[in-house]
């Protein structure tokens, strides 16, 4: 098994030629190359947070599983944080704090990275607000863009600056930096805003969880703010039929979108985009922009 050295850490890599995405012929080696290429942008969004992985050891058409606890054989140099679950049980999870850890995880076929809206050092303290826009049957990500613009205007009235990214799947994620907030408080606020939009735009928006009611509307999933929930991290690859990624967007792109294809980015197209556009989510990392939730 080949061994590579990343920032002084020795990592065994294997099966780099294995095709993970048969539809495009994309290999495991290309997955590792992608994560190395975007690591500088990605790491600030996952560092210091417990990471959950979606693993596909034989590619996206094979077995997949969601893993929270550290994989067997986790190296001693990988940071592992312990936090209490709602049941009171203590659980360990990996933190992807640096490039070696990211490469080690990618080699284990950890295709997707998911994080909560809190840091390991302060569980239950929300430093991010998230609104997950999911198009129901008959709607697309373009309709999510319409809802995103409405939400941006609504949140601005409360002094909250929001950024946007594709989910890497069907919808959009809106994110804002918070201070002095709790996960429960963020969830209550997000639910209230979602209900307001549903009342104002009942033919376009739904805030209720019932799947049967989502046809023809965009679901605003406010529950992602729960301390128990996780959201696909910025720049993560998704275990979809093609290697799509969760890509930051500009508000100009959201306003101008006419077809879903305009908002699809892959592990091939994202690194050049990042080089030219920069990190469009950067305001999320600026503590000066962190907002207080209205009381």
Automatic annotation (TrEMBL):
InterPro entries: LigD_pol_dom (IPR014145), MtLigD_Pol-like (IPR033649), NHEJ_LigD (IPR052171). It holds the Pfam family LigD_Prim-Pol. Coiled coil: none annotated. Residues 27-280 form the DNA ligase D polymerase domain. It comes from the Bacteria. This is Bifunctional non-homologous end joining protein LigD.
């Amino acid at each position: 098994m080949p061994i590579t050295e990343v920032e002084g850490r020795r990592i065994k890599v294997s099966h780099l030629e294995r095709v993970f995405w048969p539809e495009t012929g994309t290999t495991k080696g290309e997955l590792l190359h992608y994560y190395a290429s975007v690591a500088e942008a990605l790491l600030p969004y996952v560092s210091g947070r417990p990471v959950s992985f979606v693993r596909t050891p034989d590619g996206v058409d094979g077995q997949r599983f969601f893993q929270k606890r550290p994989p067997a054989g986790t190296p001693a140099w990988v940071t592992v944080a312990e936090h209490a679950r709602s049941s009171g049980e203590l659980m360990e999870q990996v933190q992807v704090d640096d490039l070696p850890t990211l490469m080690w995880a990618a080699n284990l076929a950890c295709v997707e990275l998911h994080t909560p809206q809190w840091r390991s050092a302060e569980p239950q303290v929300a430093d991010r607000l998230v609104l997950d826009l999911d198009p129901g049957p008959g709607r697309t990500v373009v309709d999510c863009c319409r809802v995103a613009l409405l939400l941006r205007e609504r949140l601005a009235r409360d002094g909250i600056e929001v950024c946007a990214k594709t989910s890497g799947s069907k919808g959009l994620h809106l994110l804002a930096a918070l201070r002095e907030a709790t996960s429960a408080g963020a969830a209550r606020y997000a639910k209230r805003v979602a209900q307001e939009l549903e009342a104002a735009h009942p033919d376009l928006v739904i805030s209720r969880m019932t799947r049967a009611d989502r046809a023809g509307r965009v679901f605003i999933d406010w529950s992602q703010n729960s301390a128990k929930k996780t959201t696909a991290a910025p720049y993560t690859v998704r275990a979809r039929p093609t290697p799509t990624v969760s890509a930051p967007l500009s508000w100009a792109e959201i306003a101008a979108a006419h077809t879903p294809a305009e908002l699809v980015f892959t592990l091939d197209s994202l690194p050049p985009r990042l080089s030219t556009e920069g990190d469009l989510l950067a305001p999320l990392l600026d503590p000066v922009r962190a907002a207080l939730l209205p009381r």
